[in-house]
Every structure is written in C-alpha cells, then in structure tokens.
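Structure tokens please, single chain.
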Amino acid sequence: MHENTTSTINPWSSENDVSIQRLFAEFGIEPIDDVAAELPEIPDFIHRNIVFGHRDYGKIVDAIKHKRAFNVMTGFMPSGPPHLGHLMVMKEVVWHVKQGGRGFVGIADREAHAVRGLDWAQCEACQKDYLTCLYALGYEGAVYVQSKNRGLQDLAFLASEKVNFSELAAVYGFGADTSLAHAVTVMHQVADILYPQIAGGPAPTLVPVGIDQDPHIRLTRGIAHKMRLFTIEDREGYISVRSKNAPEEALSFIHKRFTGSKKYAGHVDIKGSSMELVTRAVQDAELAEGGYAFVTPSATYHRFLPGLTGGKMSSSIPDSYIGFDETSKGMHKKVMDAVTGGRQTLAEQKEHGGQPDICPIFFLNMFHMIKDDTELHEIKQQCLRGELMCGQCKKDTAARMDAFLTDFNERIGSVLHLVDDAYKR
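Here you go.
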C-alpha cells in the first residue's frame, strides 16, 4: 500500500488523521447542520457535532419526514474485539431504524481475511461479538455474512465491470504490491452498500461511516450511477429522461407513461409532472429491463472517538480502547492512566483551565457517557475555569462507565438468542 497522498484516504489505516476542512474542500463532503435541521427529531450525535458531514442526507431526511421507504446499512470488519470506538455507528444505525429505516448489517469477513489476515474461525468468533453488541442497542433488521451471501458476491462481480484498477489506484493509492484479494474486497464493499436495494428494491440508502471510509462511498456512488440505464435531469420548465445504455423499449415505456411527453433519439422530455413521479416511472422501466435502478447511496460522517492513549481508538492498541467485556478493574485502570487535556501542573490547571476539546476523557463523556446536555456543558465549563481537576474527572467518568457497562452487559445477556437466530436464517 502506498502512503496517502493529497487525493487519497486509506480506509484500512489505524493512523488516519484527516482534516474535516479538507474533507469539505477537497472531497465534497457537506456540513450536516442545515439539512439535519429539517429532521422531526435531531439526535444528540448530530447536535453535538459528532456527526458533522454528509453526502445526500437530504434524501434520508425527506424519507423520514414523509414516512417513505429508506434503508440504513453498515458493515463491520471483525478484526478484533468490539469496543466503544465502534459504538457510534451502531447508534446511528439503530436510531435510523427507529425512524422507519430498513436495517442491513454486513459482516465483512472476506475483507478481514484478505486485509487483516484473520482465519475464518477467528472471523466468525469476532463477528458474533459485534452482532451481540448491536442487538443489545436495540437493532432490528437484516444481517448477513459476506462469505455466505451469494447474491452479494454476484453483485460485487457485476459492479467490478464498471471500474478498472487505475481508478482503484486513484481512490485508494493501490500500487503494484497490492494483492488482488485486497482489490476484490473493495468490490464487496461496493456490493454491501448497494445490496439493500437488491434485497428490497430501489430506495434511498444511508451508510453512516467514519471519515476514513469515504473512499468506499465515493467509489460506490460512481458505480451506482454507471449501472443506471437512464439519467434524469431537472431542466427549466421540464424534466429530461436521457438514455445511457437503455434499450429502445424502455425509452418508449417512459414516453407512453406521460401524456404530452416528447420522445427524441436517446431521450424523453416531460412537462407538467413532478420529479417524484418521473423517478418512479424510470425505476419501473429499468427494473422491467432487468436493471437495478439504484438510488445513489447517501452517507453521514462521524468523528472518531479518541483513544485513551492518544490518537485513534484502535483494536490493535489494547490500552487505547474500552471493550464491552472489560472488567471493572481493567476499565478503571485504563481510564485513570489515560491522557487528558490537562496542564502540566495542578497550579497551571487552576490558573489556565484544562483543554476539554483535546481530551479523550471529555470525548468519552460527550460521545457516550453523559446524555444530559446541561450536565455535559457544566463539566466542560468547570474544566475550562480550572475548577475540575483531571483526577476527579477520571474518577467520575469511571463511575459512569461502570454503570454503562453493567447495564450494557445485562442487555447483552438478553439478546444472545438473536445472534443464534441470525445465523440460522
């Protein structure tokens, strides 16, 4: 794997430190605040700016507001034990399912095997741990494993016809030393994102991801567009449905569907209709011809929960994370040993205050431990004023963590049968 360049992000690195402003400026990700303001209910992970950006989230907001069908999907690569760093994407999926979304969760065991070198038995053991945590949060929806889903594998093969190795090199920084198995797993990622529309028909699909996963989103959006038979353009005074590689019968189908439309070589122009009705007609035409009529997938982007040792919380650095099976003693030690945003001395802390905006302990509370915004704000202000010392803050956080893990493990015990049921389907 080549080193990251200014035009690539490495989704498999545990060292990613991608500037959010760079994502906005260079990769076209948009701030989420304005579009999320239209939601009937704004979840805390958005109003706390943990989820900060999006691609096409407006489609999902419209679906939620108008109670229309949409999907929410994510995947987990079982390369190590699940921990608090994985919890945010799980929360996003569960929240969107509760807003009416159809849930899909893929276990990326082929990716773990090809990229991380795990054997198949290790993959299966890890993937069950991830699913258990997800069900404990209240997940309801479909679950599948990459290596056992033939429909997914067929879709990955068909999608691979729409991309060449040069494009993969441009997106991921692949080079001559990249294994073919690694490249193949990229196409499985694409198929994962598009699979909900194979299983349930064309619909807006949300993929909540960390900022390091944007290459998969960009690639999939491009391939979804390439696999369409038509493009739809909203022009001044009319809507133009333009053939990419659609048969003549499909174009005629659309023309007959709209009275007064005009058919030309390669396109149909429609006046007096809505984009929604035209989109449905085009989807029907594509599906009738054996196409997929994919709706270009959407994405939200969340910040990483910082590791307790600094940097990214990572399964490969045990002291950086807190696992869901952590003992109380082990958790307390990790929290009390964690780096903070505190000053070098107690006197400096009292005089200048702490730095919660760079503190892993504060972020642990902001992401997961404290639900009340007023309480969280007061803790931040006490830190800034030099009234709350790091030692006391760590003790308070460890106590919250104890309560969280106790409750979470009780819920895990009540959902183990759901994991078994998922593997029987």
